[in-house]
Amino acid sequence: MMIYKILTAILETGTWPNDGGLNNQESFWIDLVATFGPLRRSLEFHERFNLVAKSIAGDKKQNSRIPQVRKR
Q1: Which residues contact 6 (CB under 8 A, 6 or more apart)?
Q2: Do residues 32 and 7 touch, judged by C-beta distance below 8 A?
Q3: In this structure, how many other beta carbons lie within 10 angstroms of the beta carbon of residue 43?
Q4: How far apart are CA 7 and CA 15, in angstroms?
Q5: What is the DSSP letter of 23?
Q6: pTM
Q7: Residue range 7-61, pLDDT digits in tens
Q8: Virtual CA dihedral for 6, 7, 8, 9, nearest 10 degrees?
């Protein structure tokens, strides 16, 4: 759990665990961030997508207030 919090902090703040820049970090942190970053972005995207999809599907079930385009 602590590694997750550290990786999240690195991504959100851009601050690495050790002083200095990228070259001064342990290689395992660089590898972890390189793997964790895209995975986290993907999970966040899918969470938001599902939330929007569910709200749209829910609106359609409840006579949506979203105007429907009529076919001519």
Answers
A1: 17
A2: yes
A3: 10
A4: 10
A5: G
A6: 0.59
A7: 999 999 989 988 988 889 999 999 999 999 999 999 999 999 999 888 888 766 5
A8: 50
